[in-house]
Write a structure and sequence with these properties.
Blueprint (H helix, E strand, L loop, with lengths): L4 E6 L9 E9 L3 E10 L4 H16 L7 H22 L7 E10 L4 E7 L3 E6 L2 E4 L6 H7 L5 H6 L15 H4 L5 E6 L5 E5 L1 H4 L4 H8 L5 H14 L6 E7 L25 H10 L13 H28 L16 H11 L5 E3 L9 E3 L3 E3 L3 E5 L4 E4 L6 E5 L5 E5 L2 E3 L3 E5 L3 E5 L2 E3 L3 E5 L31 E2 L2
Parallel strand pairs: 11-14, 12-15, 13-16, 14-17, 15-18, 16-19, 17-20, 18-21, 19-22, 22-23
Antiparallel strand pairs: 1-10, 2-3, 3-4, 4-5, 5-8, 6-7, 6-9, 9-10
Length: about 475
């Protein structure tokens, strides 16, 4: 499946069957994408049947490019309603079945999306790091939340949160009430992402944490997997479905224009009249002056080459000293991280800007570390809110290390427990604030490299914390190799 659309569903931790269904497919050359999330309701078997009917009817309605997207979405929902109602009348076992659904047609070529929605599945738009809820929850609790009478935390815990007042298959009202199906159209700009999901996600993961996970991970598959993993870690009380669509066109960049040239009036010199006559006959001819030689630019290029050479030399030196020697014919053992550990590495890799705030609702403390967390960004300030990193059983490596391209890391309110080495750096800057080390043999290891066979003048200073609350964390060790 193409990288700019992806869908994933999971049974969850409390259900034995999956009543969710989804559609995500390209209609024309990956520029027109159809997506839908359907959540069946009405008993152990009925919900699956209703979701299957909706999936079939939507797919039939959109076999190719639609002439009128909104009208065809409405027709797909009405056809689904007719099919479900008819089946309920013939099969008593399915008399309570229905489904809720959110459908999207994303026209990437024209930067637009169209949607239709019934129930409490949801549609979000992620733009410039902000997550905007597009659809409305068709339930009493959803109305209270959307109108601001109830905050998100209270709505997520409300005992009547899942009592919906609209669904496909409830009755024939959908055929006569034009307001029954919520529809809309909106710009879908380059870089935007659409999120369709069932309430199995939004009942377990709040909007802030959904946004954080959407900004992490390098693929849509990774983002969707992280969302479902967090919903399961928070309880997984229902089936969980996520569909992601991205406008993968390059965002437009505004290029500033140079100010216009204003010609100054000058007194004509001798022979100027003749020159003007020649230019009048040949309008393409212009008078130019030789460009001035830019010595400053040349010096800048030379300096850049010097810095590049120095950087490559230091990198090779670090690789030579840090790379482990493996026996002939052997390969490094592949470490499989746990979900929280991998999520934290993704957060390091894809932090927006130079600040990363770790949410304790996403990262469950303690996080067991079985492989070194690697910092690749030039500068990163990690605000950890008291989260604990704990060495997994038998793990002897560092908890966090700064790779060669990193220059500065600041850790705030992070705890390390049981590591042989908590933090490993090499000729890099490290700032610690409210950090604690418990049973760590070497809290900070600084491997300092010097040029081979060259005179070195240096002063290695012993580091010590400014303040400490417990005797065990009073000494900050600094090892050198």
């Amino acid at each position: 499946m193409d990288k700019h659309f992806f869908g994933l569903t999971d049974t969850g931790k409390s259900r034995d069957n999956n009543e969710d269904s989804f559609i995500v497919k390209s209609l024309t050359d990956d520029q027109l994408i159809l997506a839908a999330v359907i959540d069946g309701v009405g008993g152990y078997h009925g919900g699956e049947v209703a979701a299957a009917i909706a999936t079939e009817q939507i797919s039939m309605q959109f076999s190719d490019r639609p002439v009128d997207p909104i009208s065809q979405m409405i027709r797909a929902f009405k056809n689904t309603n007719e099919m479900i109602v008819a089946k309920k009348q013939t099969e008593k076992d399915l008399s309570e079945m229905a489904c809720v659904a959110t459908m999207v047609l994303a026209d990437i070529e024209h930067n637009q999306f169209y949607y239709a929605h019934v129930g409490d599945t949801r549609l979000y738009l992620l733009r410039d790091g902000s997550l905007i809820k597009i659809s409305k929850d068709h339930s009493f609790v959803g109305f209270l939340e959307d109108s601001g009478r109830l905050d998100e935390a209270a709505a997520m815990q409300h005992p009547k949160r899942n009592e919906i007042n609209k669904a496909i298959g409830f009755s024939d009202q959908i055929a006569t009430d034009d307001s029954y199906i919520e529809t809309g159209q909106s710009p879908f700009l380059p870089g935007d992402m659409l999120v369709l999901c069932s309430d199995g996600l939004t009942d377990m993961v709040n909007k802030h944490d959904i946004t954080s996970l959407l900004l992490q991970g390098d693929t849509l598959a990774k983002k969707a997997g992280n969302l479902i993993a967090l919903a399961n870690e928070n309880g997984g009380r229902d089936n969980i479905t996520v569909v992601l669509l991205q406008n993968n066109k390059e965002p437009q960049r505004v290029i500033p224009t140079k100010p216009g040239f204003t010609q100054q009036t000058q007194v004509p010199a001798a022979g100027a009249e003749k020159n003007e006559a020649i230019r009048a006959e040949n309008p393409t001819l212009t008078t130019t002056t030789p460009p001035k030689r830019n010595y400053g630019f040349t010096a800048l290029v030379i300096l850049c080459f010097i810095l590049l050479g120095t950087t490559v030399f230091m990198y090779l030196q670090n690789q030579h000293t840090a790379a482990p020697v493996l026996p002939l014919g052997s390969s490094p053992k592949k470490i499989v991280r746990n979900s929280q550990e991998q999520l934290l590495q993704d957060a390091f890799d894809h932090a927006v800007g130079d600040t990363l705030i770790l949410s304790d609702s996403i990262f469950k403390s303690p996080i067991l570390i079985s492989d070194t967390l690697r910092l690749r960004k030039d500068t990163l300030y990690v605000l950890a809110n008291g989260i604990v990193l704990q060495a997994d059983s038998g793990y002897k490596g560092a908890a966090i290390t700064m790779l060669s391209q990193s220059r500065l890391m600041k850790l705030d309110s992070l705890q390390f427990k049981g590591f042989a080495t908590a933090i490993a750096i090499s000729n890099q800057a490290l700032l610690l604030k409210n950090v604690t080390f418990t049973n760590c043999l070497l809290p900070v290891k600084n491997s300092i490299s010097f040029p081979d066979q060259q005179l070195v003048n240096a002063e290695l200073m012993k580091l010590s914390p400014l303040k400490s609350t417990t005797p065990k964390t009073r000494d900050l060790k600094n090892g050198a190799e």
